[in-house]
Write a structure and sequence with these properties.
Layout: H1 2-11, H2 19-23, E1 45-49, E2 56-61, H3 62-66, E3 79-87, E4 94-103, E5 108-110
Antiparallel strand pairs: 1-2, 1-3, 3-4, 4-5
């Protein structure tokens, strides 16, 4: 189940861990996503700080890690979103499942209030 990748990655987050610890829990090939290059899957699995803008620091994704960008180190007290795409491979039909967390000394505290397993479909017509 794709949700397991999201939560396995989150389980690697704690004070002093890095984004590489998260990436080691996520698929290690762009082909898993239906692409040939890491640059194509940048928005499919990522994490970012929460605060003043859409994607605050630290920001991490597979694309940056495989491009040799400096590792992001997690610190106790950081508020973050962790996101993982599920949907059609090589396509745009899908959704990024997201959990908001607070980094703690030994892990994280879940801040999201609505359980992903209970996500509902929007009945409004697409315009």
């Amino acid at each position: 189940m794709v949700c397991s990748y999201l939560y396995d990655g989150m389980d690697a987050i704690k004070d002093g861990a890095t984004d590489m610890d998260v990436m080691l829990k996520w698929p290690d090939s762009p082909q898993w996503w239906g692409y040939d290059d890491w640059n194509d899957i940048g928005p499919y699995a990522l994490g970012h700080g929460l605060g003043l803008s859409l994607h605050d620091r630290p920001f991490f994704n597979q694309q940056n890690v495989h491009a040799g960008m400096p590792l992001q180190k997690f610190q106790e007290g950081m508020c973050m979103a962790v996101e993982f795409y599920t949907g059609k491979k090589s396509g745009k039909d899908g959704v990024r499942l997201e959990e908001n967390i607070l980094v703690t000394k030994d892990g994280y505290e879940l801040l999201s209030l609505w359980p992903i397993a209970e996500l509902m479909e929007c009945w409004l017509p697409y315009r």
